[in-house]
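subagent[fold] <- orchestrator: predict structure for attached chain, return tokens only, no commentary.
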Amino acid sequence: MTGDARRPEEAHGPEDARRDAAVRRASAALETYTLSGDGWRRSPGETLARVLADLMHWSDDTQCDFADAQSRARDLHAAERRG
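subagent[fold] -> orchestrator:
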């Protein structure tokens, strides 16, 4: 064991703490899929594809522009990576 026993968000800078929080939120959101009847058989990539397809169906039903939301998400992701 190393001498650094800090929590992950304390071991990094604020940008890393925000990224860690985002990953925790995504993991929590994906938990329903991974714990489903056949979800545990899927790879992480297959689970992500299922979630995205479901979000596309949801977007159709709610008349949201999925491509626009995806573009804005890419911009947000890039801005967060830059810090």
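orchestrator: received. Logging for downstream: Helices lie at 8-11, 14-34, 44-62, 66-82. The radius of gyration is 16 Å.
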